[in-house]
Amino acid sequence: xxxxxxxxxxxxxxxxxxxxxxxxxxxxxxxxxxxxxxxxxxxxxxxxxxxxxxxxxxxxxxxxxxxxxxxxxxxxxxxxxxxxxxxxxxxxxxxxxxxxxxxxxxxxxxxxxxxxx
Length: 117
Prior knowledge:
Layout: E1 17-22, E2 29-35, E3 41-47, H1 55-63, H2 71-98, H3 104-116
């Protein structure tokens, strides 16, 4: 299964969101999504990892404990990581524009049902 969806406010149906990022030692990162139009709570996500528009910086942080004998090898890995993130972002945007209208909960349920088969 491969699907994507744009987040919609359950109250006003808007698609402009504010992500409130909550970081607490010993816990996964949590994103509390707020509607930018009516300021209603929309959703909460728990993240294992986070990548911003500077994916190479995130990868550097992940790799800081590893030693590379070759700077070229490290650079290639950083460039590949950046390409993968950008490519996936474009694909998800395209999928979200094409998919039928379902709630995030319905998409997650379908994913778990597929996994059980």
